Amino acid sequence: MPVKHQEPFEVQIPECEGDILQIHDLHFAYPDGHIALRGVNLSICAGEKVALVGPNGAGKSTLMLHLNGILGEQSPVSIAGLSIDSNNLPLIRALVGLVFQNPDDQLFSPTVFDDVAFGPLHMGLPEEEIHQRVKKALAAVQMDGFDDRLSHHLSMGQKKRIAIATVLAMQPQILILDEPSAGLDPRSRRSLINFLRDLPITMLVSTHDIFMVKDLFPRMVIMDEGKIVADGATLDLLEDEVLLETHGLEVP
Amino acid sequence: MHVHVFDQYHYSQSRIHNLDPRVKVLVTVTFILSNAILPDGAWPAFALAWLLLLFANDQSNLGLEFTFKRSFVALPFALVAVSAIFSPLGEPLVEWNQGFITLIPTDFGLIRFLSILVRSWLSVQMAILMVATTQFPDLIHAFEHLKVPRILTTVIAFLYRYLFVLTDEGFRLLRARDARSAGLPGTKSGGSIQWRARTTGSMVGQLFLRSYERSDRIYQAMISRGYTGHIRTLNPHQMDQKDWRMLGFSLIIVILIQLVGWIR
After folding, report:
1. B224–A2: do the CB atoms touch at under 8 Å?
2. Could you report the predicted ipTM of this complex, rounded to two decimals?
3. Single pTM value for the model
4. A102 — contact with chain B (CB < 8 Å)?
């Protein structure tokens, strides 16, 4: 009496013509009336690594939650040409790998293996493929052999790596990271930066770590009060001390 | 920083661990039902049920006394049945005069009380064994395959998941309180009962708000990775020969228990 859990669905990635991520005039207000986004426009081309900076409360996290349809059921966001609606949602969640700021929110399963397998398992992939993907994802974050460990016994740096592995296993087209270097010691931070540099995936990374931005991201987007106030080459924007100080950022 | 006070799964390899979770759920439920409908004072039948339980304990590699040691959690609930001792249906045994109350235990009542005690004690042990040998996702899965409504299984799964979140958050709050509960040498720290009650009250409120928000974030992390309301597991759920054999064997024993209980 074999039990079919769900028909596996084919993940067919549409040809990306130019921009993998497009946002046109995105507005959002929380149910309590707090306005978080006031007209955001952003496009990211496949292969780009973009930093998203800005003070606390600028709307960075809210924007990120829109990118795979957790907030805003029908928003003017399109991923690889797919608009976000209830039909496309499963595919979009496979395309967009969203890593939350606190790995304790992201790692909710009993073991590391279960957590990394969660995404592929819920995509309906066959068992062998799931095992392969978990292995590959753990190898990619240099955490091979941690399968049977309990997530909550790991250090912060290790947890962050596992959290990234949980979405890498879904083989996303774009990686969205919320403050990946926060709370890491210098060595873990350095190895995270090297790891992100070598990762051949489009990424949008929200951070307060201006030095990491300078090191890693050719393009930088500054957000403040729910709007994008600057978008350009990192080296140019970092020259503009007045701009950085108006929006509460460090001058490196 | 998690607590595992509720995670009663005991990792091991055994015939019971390897059984299909459906078999374990079915046998446990039938066993509990069988205990419930046995007549009062059917001691040979209770003994047979106990033997089945011992056999299951033995097969699980957890040790014969495994469930016995854990069975006392149910005792407080069995105490509710104490009033059965004073059932007016039987012959009075003694008469206790406590001022204006007269208590008369009867033989019928005493037998009824002991039977309830034994029934609950046996049933709880089987349930403990089931939980100790089945991983939680598998248990949920078994319920789903046994056609328990989805809404119930999902509620159970989330209850279990967020129990950990809640206790974690609680321990963090307690630790933060302890860290600030300073006292001068020779004086008692803390204030009046009223003050303590107020502090506890706001801690409970905080606990609710924090775990509410945290559970929201965990849920977001789950749907980000494709969660659609089904708990899934990689364990294949396939009834094979050993599952059918164990199911058949257990059901036969349960029928035997019933026969022994009713035929005197």
Report:
1. no
2. 0.78
3. 0.69
4. yes
